[in-house]
């Protein structure tokens, strides 16, 4: 998967489709995006105990609640010296989740859904004779039947120890999208793709009582019907972020347009 996706469905509509009980204020403030890029703040869906304040001022864990939260795209492990490492961890390969320390722990305790309307990918074409520049055709890849695409994701907390204990910015929440080998047909565009979890697996994936191995098994044969559309090159520039990016390329440079 390349490093771009779109998430423009309104938060309340996402909440309705994903059976979300609460929307965090910072997540609600995130506007629609047609060109989400690494290190951007994004929306994630999580299940965790609600924090409840007791009469003596302390807090305790309450009932498990599904909510939409905000997180930075690019996972920062809790042991990282600084958050810059997150730019290299926007994706987590499904094949190595149980082996890599940055992903194995959150796989067992901090899984999320990353809601999207679709994602962008670029197909590398043959370079014209006499030139080294490799042309690329951009594609919009999205659920065939509409509705939200729920990417399997992980999230993590990182503590900025240079900030005071009472500084609300001392904690950074970050996320990564799990990828897999591309499905037949899509592999003509790129060899990797995000794991789309079908609706019947959302509950188990988010359930904090499900262990790492069982969660890993939920990624097997995770299939959602997808459609492709060649689009114009404007999506390659993060400064372009509007609905026009979804419009078909009237004159694609791909001589063999990929259609699913």
UniProtKB/TrEMBL annotation:
Signal sequence annotation: none
GO biological process: protein-DNA covalent cross-linking repair; proteolysis
Region ranges (Disordered): 239-260
Matching Pfam families: SRAP
UniProt GO MF annotations: lyase activity; peptidase activity; single-stranded DNA binding
EC number, as in UniProt: 3.4.-.-
The entry's keywords: Covalent protein-DNA linkage, DNA damage, DNA-binding, Hydrolase, Lyase, Protease
Biased composition (Acidic residues): 248-260
Record flagged with keyword Lipid biosynthesis: no
InterPro entries: SRAP, SRAP-like
Family: Belongs to the SOS response-associated peptidase family.
Species of origin: Isoptericola dokdonensis DS-3
Protein name (Swiss-Prot/TrEMBL): Abasic site processing protein
Xref: SUPFAM superfamilies: BB1717-like
